[in-house]
Amino acid sequence: MWRLALAEPKVTLDLARGLGLKAEEYDRIIQQLQREPTYTELGLFSALWSEHCAYKHSKVFLRRLPQSGRHVLQGPGENAGAVDIGDGWAVVFKVESHNHPSFIEPFQGAATGVGGILRDIFTMGARPIAILDSLRFGDLSDPKTRRLIEGVVSGISWYGNCFGCPTVGGEIAFAPEYAGNPLVNVMCVGLVRADRIFRARAAGVGNPVFYVGNKTGRDGIHGATMASATFDEHAEERRPTVQVGDPFTEKLLLEACLEAMATGAVVGIQDMGAAGLACCASEMPSRSGTGMAVELSAVPQREEGMTPYELLLSESQERMLLVGARGREDELRRVFARWELDAVQIGEVTAGGQLVVRHRGAEVARVPVVALTDAPVYEKPYAPPAWLAERQALEPLALPEPVDYNAALVELMGSPTLASKEWAFRQYDQQVGINTLVLPGSDASVLRVKGTRRAIAVAIDGNGRQVLLDPRAGAAMAVCEAARNVSCAGGRPLGVTDCLNFGSPERPEILWQLAEAVEGIGQACRALELPVVGGNVSLYNETVGPGHATQPSVSSGIQAILPTPIVGVVGLLEDAALLSTQWFKGAGHRVALLGPEAVSLGGSEYLWLRHGRVGGRLAPLDLEVERRVQSAARAAIAAKLATATHDCSEGGVAAALAEACVTGRTPVGCDVTLPAGARSDVVLFGEGPSRIVVGVERERAREFEALMAESAIPWRWIGTTGGD
Fold this sequence. Notes:
alpha+beta, about 35% helix, CATH 3.30.1330.10, seven-stranded mixed β-sheet, Phosphoribosyl-aminoimidazole Synthetase, Chain A, domain 2, six-stranded mixed β-sheet
């Protein structure tokens, strides 16, 4: 007979609201259960129906993204996406956010963000080979920002270095809109045999359900709910909701899981990430049309007196839920014992589609798994912000030119966003695993696929100011830039993972930004034939506090981040020997600029740094030109005509040329002539899509010209390398 195992708080609407549920959601729960939920059941719904887990406001838009393609082995809906790279290998990759925890506790928030994305990769059966991170912070002169940066970068390096996965690339940008809500987006890439991909399934009635890995504590309880809320002045008091990581245990868990998978005794496996055991015990059977029975008293615990509610919702790190093959339980136990990890059977797969949770034999929850995983989906009205037209109307040419262009370039290259990030990268182990062929500091990182001639190129990009001014075009440009960076390394882009960082979707102008950005990502991906195989949505990235100039709120006192879709792209080099890097290789090479001449100071780093303004209109994006420019660059690299290839992005062609000159082992100058007619600051510092700087040996210039003629793209010679 159904009964409570422990005395629990009385469930009321006020309690439900306190856990992040709306009144209509509470009513829906009662309707689905045909009764009032217990406190433990209410906790299940509050976590599984949180924005962080359920994508209630974004799912309607995400459905529009292209998710299939000839290389796709696994699309959205699993722990990570996977694409086929040939020779029997697949690349598994995904980007995730850990924004809210990293603000509350920067070191552990960032560290556990790395740990979580690593587990997403190796639960697919892949060995992680690379980490990339995309970070956003407020004004660097603010001591609080510096504290956040130090904690976040230290947390990323500590976890990745101790685990033994190289951090090979990423980006760090600064803007005042991130002061109260930094962004920590972490991408991981792994390799797996294409026929050995594992999925988060709970198939086979009667199969045992194992808890494996670290013990459960009270850290991270309601972390998913916290990540679905706006920050206020009490945010830093929420440290108990931030998980605590142990990379050495994670390394053991990696090896144990891969060994267990190799035995054939693993049916399905999922990381206990957001919402912990509750999420795994719901999602795994939901995907398989089964149910699950769980006995919580069997869960390994590191704290005394934990309640069923706490055991289900804890987000303690380095834990997995594994479904094994019946009759092979001892085999699995022996594998994990060899790695000195817990592997305890806590339940079994059942028929009937129910999640039944017991504690010391007494039932504490009985819920249809589909009720937990089929959260409400909202289609709310949205509209562009009232201030957007005025901001787009800003005319940068009405602002004064620099008196000294040399000083202007030095100032631009010294800005926190454009300056060298060696101070961060040197804290990361970049070569553990000896796969890294191109280290951080070029357009994309390149990693070998051992045992083959192949390599993969990976990049991650985003530009919040561009998305603020034109969400659709700005998001499309983020896709193009990430793909262009991969192409500049010689890789053919194969797939996309994205992390959508926005404010509250309950504000019409923010929801409009999200909808437009997703549409832009979809348009660019379709044009470049890039499927989106997975990703993450992070909403409610805003803080109660003073407003700011770039994105004033309808609700006074709410400060949202810049709308920041971050895009990761993975590409394939058929021959690792044909990779390319961004720096000039010597004097006397000719310098070409591929792509259109149209650029704009609208939304540029120069406009913000020099004039403190965010406004104007973006340069036009022609996706067909973008596709052809990238193809031409790859062709030049494959023909060994290009000695350097570098994407033009923030800072314009002047910044791209400066980087190409100084980022190699031996600095090389260049002498260029840029188009006359336009204002010099526009030509030098204006930003626009589809542009690549290419170095070409002088004796091969005619071959290059012939290739460009075949490619049918706009391009021109702009100078020669050499000099100071």
